Amino acid sequence: MVKHYRIGLDEKYEVTKKWSLNDLRMIDGKEADTDNPFFDLHFKKVYSLEAYSCASKYAFVRTVNKLNHAYLKKDLRIVNFDSTYLNDDSIWSSNNKDCLVLMRICFYAFNLVCLSLCPLPL
Predict the structure, then answer these.
(1) Where is the Exocyst complex component Sec3 PIP2-binding N-terminal domain (predicted)?
(2) Which residue ranges make up each domain of the chain?
(3) Is there a contact between 29 and 79 (Cβ–Cβ < 8 Å)?
(4) How far apart are CA 82 and CA 87, in angstroms?
(5) Phi-psi region of 80 (alpha: psi -120 to 50; beta: other; left: phi over 0)
């Protein structure tokens, strides 16, 4: 866990806690259907954390999940997350995964514009 703070114009980062991926039991996104940056990491103790944004929360979970599959291959429980944004094989995947939510909104907005411009048969 890294603490970020500013002193004047300088930005400082301080490592406050470190955990082993092997000790992680579960990641709880708290609410899958709302846009919030809060989540819990379950070790022997539960740590409630706040990410910079909802997109960075999902980016963090995707990274932890990939590291788990690459090195530990254990069954890591990830709950209360929208699985559409966690899987690489989904239609919403891209190289820059932080813009997934925006891309989905743009996709729906584009469809609405196209449908509104279609002439109605008389």
Answers:
(1) 2-71
(2) 2-86, 87-121
(3) yes
(4) 9
(5) left
Own/partner pairs, 44-51, CB within 8 angstroms, 24+ separation: 47/1, 47/17, 49/1
Structure tokens at 41: 């990491």
> What count of other Cβ atoms lies within 10 Å of the Cβ of residue 49?
14
Output the pTM of the full model: 0.67
Backbone φ and ψ for 43, nearest 5 degrees, come out as: -110, -145
Query: Which tens digits make up the pLDDT trace of 22-45?
Result: 999 999 999 888 888 999 999 999
DSSP state, 98? G
Binned at pLDDT 50, 70 and 90, residue 48 comes out as very high
Please, are residues 38 and 50 in contact by the beta-carbon 8 Å criterion? yes
Distance, in Å, from the CA atom of 79 to the CA atom of 28, rounded to the nearest integer, reads 5
